[in-house]
Amino acid sequence: MSSKYPHLFTPIDVHGVRIENRVIMGSIHTGLEGNPFSLQKLSAFYEERAKAGVGMIVTGGISPNRRGWLLPFSGKMSSYWDVRLHRQVTERIKAYPTKMLCQLLHAGRYAVHPFSLAPSAIQSPITKFAPTKMSLKQVRECVQDFIHAASCAHRAGYDGVEVMGSEGYLIHQFFSHRTNRRSDEYGHDLKGRIRFAKEIIEGIRQKLGHEFLIMFRLPMIDLLPDGNSFEEVLELAKELEVSGVSILNSGIGWHESRVPTIASMVPQAAFAWLTQKFKQYCKVPLVASNRINTPEIAEDILSQEMADFVSLARPFLADPQWTQKAKFDQGQNINVCIACNQACLDHIFQLKRASCLVNPQACYETEKILSKSLDPKKVLVVGAGPAGLACAYYAAKAGHQVELWEKSMHVGGQFTLASKIPGKEEFAKTIDFYRNQLFEMKVLIEYGKEFSDTEADQRGFDHIVFATGVKARIPEIQGISHPKVIFYDQLLSKKEMPKSSYAIVGAGGIGFDVAEFLSHQEYAEDPVEQYAHEWGIDRSLQHPGGLTQMKPEASRGYRNIYLLQRKKSKPGKNLSKTTGWIRRKTLEHRGVKMMSGIEYQKIDDHGLHILVDGHEKILEVDQVVICAGQVSVRPKTQRDQKSIHYIGGCKEARELDAKTAIEEAFDVATRI
Q1: 5, 46, 110, 169: which is the annotated catalytic residue?
Q2: What is the value of pTM for the model shown?
Q3: Tell me, what DSSP letter sits at residue 129?
Q4: Looking at residues 393-411, what average pLDDT do you find?
Q5: Residues 25-68: pLDDT tens digits?
Q6: Among 114, 218, 452, 543, which is most buried by a count of CB atoms within 10 Å?
Q7: Residue 500, domain extent
Q8: Please, what's the b/e burial string for 170-193 (b: 16 or more CB within 10 A of its CB; e: otherwise)?
Q9: DSSP code of 62?
Q10: Residue 169 falls in the annotated catalytic set
Q11: What is the CATH number of the domain that holds 395?
């Protein structure tokens, strides 16, 4: 047992089933669930995590019937064919003590297809298809479909099911008075709204017996105005306990809620307090979830008896050996999830296979294979940003002799700058991971080292990988050399910001980062308390839905900030689908003025002169921050191009695209 994390690795018996530790790999939509030709890949993905000793795995959402599909041809569990396909997954997991649950998810009105059903014909604000109201017969048939799906999962070899009852999916839609306007026995009052979930759990327990695990995702807080109250959710929990549920998992918010719950700006363990509150009243084991990514955080939750289990989803994309490393007190070697969403949730919304920015092998275990080289080479990597660090790491793992040259006196590059942004501090953990791994693998890192062909030739390198990154682009604006002008990298490297007003030239990802950096103001010692205040979360749970009546004015920034762009489109239009709205809303709350269609005239002692809709305007600011794109930095070399490789920003200038940079680093390391 781990000496550092004793609670994390204490076994527990649930309904007569022994679970080896308190770590649950929570449900992750991978994009592989619905394709019968991809289940072998899905099996390999889960096996890597089971092999490392995770206590329990929950699959991505599998529908109990076709109309419950989230997307057309998503995963389904309703036939003999589905059972046969899923045995490919469970048979590989049976070699390990890990328990495996199949998540049963009916999308309801969240379905992205025209055949969606819901308790009432109320369209979701985040989907384009209006649902059809379920008839009484359809409701009863759907209950039986859930029970049948659980039976199929049992025959497929799963140890149990997780019934998805939160996040705004069908069961949650029945439970909420916002989406359930029925007047029959499945609506009308609280007892009626609970009936659908209650009958599903009762039916599964009766059919499959005492030792079949049933975990229910309980909608602990809606994060919507006029949502369910704490008392109503607690009544649901108690009814489910009587009905035979084994474990209650924490469900946080609806997908349509305008409160971030899992992105990087959400503090670690931001909702553990909520699980702790329910634990006072519930008899069955409870699971804490959302933004738990290190063993220290998980252990702290368990040691304080805030929960009986911890659920981590994306951290198992970042590092499949998370559990094993924690068990053997190697937490410092964990490749920590930084909650960026770029390769996991963003990919799923783009109908792509999920992966991970810091681990490009995630969900590609059968395709992106890193093997020991039979012909080790001497490799030089130039530049120690995320691309260079990753390339040196993967090349060393492949058995090559690697040296890493960095012209500055520290590693990290643009990722170090990103870690200065409030809410992105965890980006530094990725740099720490690579630094620790390279030290253990005895990779030589030379600081203050400029590249030269002569020295590279003298040392006899077989391959040189340039990962020299980017530098800020200098726009053609009159007065660009004025003392008021500062470039984003200079600003983020400063320790103090005495100015009170800023104009930011460029509203791409970096421009938004700078605006968040400048507008941030700490006003609470507890980051969870500050997050709750800024987003209007009622931790007293006095308001139904868990939101206060916070007004945006309460969070207005203490600096006057303009965020400007030449394009006429809405600022932030091209930001990530899953986090872009959060970043826009954050700046709106803080009073940042976002302006489009700007023509830059000049910069002088008065400030920034601009043209807006044909009208001249002077922004009388103390400083003008340039975030107008980037250009590649490429050292000159006369070497044979067959031995030269370019990755990351020096290959093609992008806005801090670490996902592509690390993917390219992996690919080059496997091809050398």
Answers
A1: 169
A2: 0.95
A3: P
A4: 97
A5: 999 999 999 888 898 999 999 999 999 999 999 999 999 999 99
A6: 218
A7: 485-521+557-628
A8: bbbbbbbbbbbebeeebbeebebb
A9: B
A10: yes
A11: 3.40.50.720
